[in-house]
Specification:
about 140 residues, Four Helix Bundle (Hemerythrin (Met), subunit A), mainly alpha, 4 helices
């Protein structure tokens, strides 16, 4: 279980709300895995991630364009890699079925995304906005 920390906020309510929503789903998946129900929860979690990434990444990338974020291209690439990881995992589950390995992989992917991407990369968006005096949002 990962608790939301204020330090994860980037200072844009819409994006921060979406990030918190992801953490809720991540924790639901963690809890299911802890209760030996990860296999049952994985398809629901992947479905959520596909929908979430479409909306969230679009919102985030539009924001980055609006603020002339200098690392937009790299950030887009990272988003695309995450989507590919989710789709590859979904395809693997469709062809091979749900396994302990697939639940572990999703667990690691989501944890890494939260701790590294949101807490490090997305924080740069907030810093960029703050450096411009919050005029961009």
């Amino acid at each position: 279980m990962i608790n939301w920390k204020d330090s994860y906020d980037i200072g844009v309510e819409k994006i921060d709300c979406q990030h918190r929503q992801l953490l809720v789903k991540l924790n639901e998946f963690f809890e299911a895995c802890t209760n030996q129900q990860g296999k049952e929860k994985i398809e629901e979690t992947l479905k959520f991630l596909k929908e979430y990434t479409l909306e969230h990444f679009s919102d985030e990338e539009h924001l980055m364009q609006d603020i002339d974020f200098p690392e937009l291209a790299e950030h887009r690439k990272t988003h695309a890699e995450f989507v590919k990881t989710v789709l590859d995992l979904e395809e693997s589950i469709k062809s091979k079925g749900v396994s302990v390995l697939s639940t572990i992989k999703l667990n690691r992917t989501l944890t890494d995304w939260l701790l590294n991407h949101i807490n490090k990369c997305d924080k740069l968006i907030g810093q960029c906005i703050a450096s411009k005096g919050n005029q961009a949002v």
